[in-house]
Amino acid sequence: HLVESGGGLVKPGGSLRLSCAASGFTFSKAWMSWVRQAPGKGLEWVGRIKGKSDGGTIDYAAPVKGRFTISRDDSKNTLYLQMNSLKSEDTAVYYCTTDGIWYVRDDAYYGMHVWGQGTTVTVSS
Amino acid sequence: DIQMTQSPSSLSASVGDRVTITCRTSQTIGNYLNWYQQKPGKAPKLLIYAASSLQSGVPSRFSGSGSGTDFTLTISSLQPEDFATYYCQQSYSSPLFTFGQGTKLDIK
Known about the structure:
The complex is a heterodimer. Chain A is mostly beta strands. Helix content of chain A is 0%, strand content 55%. In chain A, strands 2, 4, 5, 6, 9, 10 and 11 form a seven-stranded mixed beta sheet that branches. Helix content of chain B is 0%, strand content 49%. In chain B, the strands form two sheets. In chain B, strands 2, 4, 5, 6, 9, 10 and 11 form a seven-stranded mixed beta sheet that branches. Chain B has a four-stranded antiparallel beta sheet with strand order 1-3-8-7, with no helix packed on it. The chains are: A mainly beta, B mainly beta. Chain A binds chain B through residues 33, 42-45, 47-48, 59, 61-62, 95, 99-100, 102, 104, 107, 109-113, 115-118, and chain B through 1, 32, 34, 36, 38, 42-46, 49-50, 53, 87, 89, 91, 94-102.
C-alpha cells in the first residue's frame, strides 16, 4: 500500500517535497520509482531509487536531472521526491510505485508493480 | 532514448469485440515490454510483463505478443470494465523506462 502526499500549488522557480508512505511490504528492500502524468497526457518515468542492500543507486529522467532529488527513510517506510526550480511543465499527478522484478526463464524483467493514488502538483504563477 | 509509438491513439469498440493495440519501438528491445491499463482518475495497473506474461490476477482475455520492435496487446472479448486507456512501456533500458503515448479504448 502506497500513499502520496505533499502536492499543491507552487510558483515557477519554487520547491516542493512529496512523500510516499509505504506499508504491507518490506520497504527497505524495495526499489521505488516516481512516475508523473501531466493533465490529459501520458505517463512519464521520473526516477528510481534502489534498496540500500542493492547499493541505493538513484537514477533520473533527463527532464528532471539536477532539479529533483529522490531519497528514502527506511526507518519511516517513506519515499521522498524533492522538487526544486519547478517549471510549468512539471505540473502533473505524481505517483510513487514499487518496481517489480519478474523472472522468465532466468531473465529478469522490470516494471511498475504497486502504485499509489497520486498527488497533484500544479506549477503556476 | 527509445521512442515508443502506439496505434491507434483511440479506438471505439463494443462489448464482446476482439481488440488489438499495437506498440512499436524505435530500436529492438527483445521482449522487454510491459502493458498497463489506466481508468479515469485511477493509477495504472500492470497487465502484462515480458511482452506476453500475464500479471497475477489479470483475466485471461488479455494477451500480449511480439518481440524486437513490434508488440501487440489483444483483448479477446471486451468486457464493460475494459474500457480504459492502455500504455506500453519498455524496460530494456531500465531504469530509463519510457511509455507509449497511450491508446484510449471507449464504447462504440
